[in-house]
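Q&A log
Question type: sequence-to-structure
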Amino acid sequence: MYRPLLIAILMIGLSGCTKKIEAGENSPLMPLKIKMIDEAGNESGRDLAYERSITIDSSEDKIVGLFESFQKNCRDASADACTVLDSNIEMSRNPSARIKFRAKPKGIQKLVDSIGKQGEIFEQSTRAEELATPLMDASKQLEMLKDYRSKLEALLNRKNLDADSLIKLNKELSQAQSEIETQAGKQAFLNQRLETEILNVSIVTYKNLSFWNPITRSVQDFGTNLSEGISSAIIGIAFLIPWLILLLFLVWLGRKLWRRRNLTKSS
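Response status: OK
Response body:
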């Protein structure tokens, strides 16, 4: 993408007018050094983004209370940057709820501890995604884009440019700036994933399902099942009619041939 314009830069004679960008300790081009808190309270570097999932078994009458309580715990953990990313509750046929949190590692651990005290955790899992390489690639790409923008700005400062060159340079500069913002957004997202963790909480009623719940569902579905049964019977009859006609025809043909054979023998 940059090759044609770089050739133009060389033709203009500004190959030496480049500005070297220094990436210091506080430079946005440098990958963010991520720290995590281990169980002993010590900080250690990491390049993994964690996503945890836990499933809570609860009775039907407690689902709404747990659903609201878990979200309140997140709101109270604002110091740990806790955010509810997604939430859903269903109280019709199969009562259940689902909440997705994002917070710093300490905040996620506090949520897990609090959730464990309010319900029975019978399933949990952790998934880690390595982001060191994507973050390094994003940083390098951003550095290249900013260096390219500096070269374009140096060209614009030339006094001997004609109108056509100015239009082309401004177009390239606008495109480069747009790509820089896009790349910076990707890098910020990766940094956020490293700084925080994701927690998926599911509230179900597998073990605490009411005795009458399956019976109630069967009664509620009686009309639907009856209509589907009648529909299946009609469809079956529709499929059988052609075969029945064919069978009757074969029987009639067989009887006719049999009678003709008997008449031939008797004569």
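Response note: The two ends are 99 Å apart (CA to CA).
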